[in-house]
């Protein structure tokens, strides 16, 4: 299973839209545009497909923790 597949499954399971994913990534100071995000969710054969790197998935998961639980206490 690729990082793109994991992102797609999390998006569906958590019922997240593109703006919410962008906002989640901003929680960990990672900036991505909706166009770049759309390229990650495209079909592998599409000309604008972009593989989801480990850095994007890692930052999304870290941001998701903050989004769901709140910031880590000091």
Radius of gyration from CA coordinates:
12 Å
Oligomer state equals single chain
**Secondary structure tally, helices:** 4
Number of strands: 0
Please estimate the helix content: 55-70%
Mean pLDDT across residues: 94
InterPro entries: YehS-like (IPR009921)
Pfam family, one: DUF1456
List the helices and strands and how they pair.
Blueprint: H1 3-13, H2 18-26, H3 34-40, H4 54-69
Keywords:
single chain, 74 residues, mainly alpha, 4 helices, 0% strand
A few lines on this structure:
This protein has four helices and no strands. It is an all-alpha fold and 74 residues long.
Describe this structure as you would to a colleague:
The chain is an all-alpha fold. It has one domain (3-69). The chain has helices at 3-13, 18-26, 34-40, 54-69. The longest helix is centred in the last third of the chain and has 16 residues, at 54-69. The chain is elongated. It starts with a helix and ends in a 5-residue tail after the last helix. The mean pLDDT is 94.
């Amino acid at each position: 299973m690729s990082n793109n597949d994991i992102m797609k499954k999390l998006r569906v399971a958590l019922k997240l839209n593109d703006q919410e994913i962008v906002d989640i990534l901003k929680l960990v100071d990672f900036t991505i545009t909706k166009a770049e995000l759309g390229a990650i969710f495209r079909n592998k054969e599409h000309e604008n497909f972009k593989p989801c790197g480990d850095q994007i998935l890692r930052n999304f998961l870290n941001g998701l923790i903050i989004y769901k639980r709140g910031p880590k206490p000091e």
